[in-house]
Specification:
Elements (H helix, E strand, L loop, with lengths): L21 E5 L6 H7 L1 H5 L5 E5 L3 E2 L15 E2 L19 H17 L8
Parallel strand pairs: 1-2
Antiparallel strand pairs: 3-4
């Protein structure tokens, strides 16, 4: 019998491309996804079975970042006191936390629908 328009359609199955699980990675206070990617390079290199996804927080840094980061690098914060100093500005989560949680949620949903596979952790 002819199945699916071709006699062999019900017999032959092509191997499915195995999708790598994705791991969503969060940078620290007043940093960025690309900076974290650079820092985690050795870990990424030893886990080729995983795809690491580095996202930026939705809020541009409102104050100074780590002095070791060059000033021309864009940095972001998940929450914090607007204009607060680097050492203590992150202590107050009342500014930006809700927006960041929504950003994380939408980032995860977008990657789950991506052909590369769901988020793994």
């Amino acid at each position: 019998p002819v199945v699916g328009g071709h006699p062999a359609a019900g017999i032959i199955s092509l191997p499915r491309r195995r999708r790598r699980p994705k791991v969503l990675c969060f940078h620290g206070y007043r940093a960025s996804g690309p900076l974290l990617r650079l820092s985690l390079g050795p870990f990424v290199a030893v886990a080729p079975e995983l795809e690491f996804v580095f996202i930026d927080a939705p809020l541009r840094s409102s104050g100074p970042h780590d002095p070791r980061i060059p000033p021309e690098i864009d940095t972001y914060e998940w929450w914090g006191t607007p204009g607060g100093d680097y050492a203590t500005g992150w202590l107050d989560a009342s500014h930006g936390l809700g927006e960041s949680l929504a950003h994380i949620s939408s980032s995860g949903q977008g990657h789950e629908e991506d052909e590369g596979g769901p988020l793994a952790g």
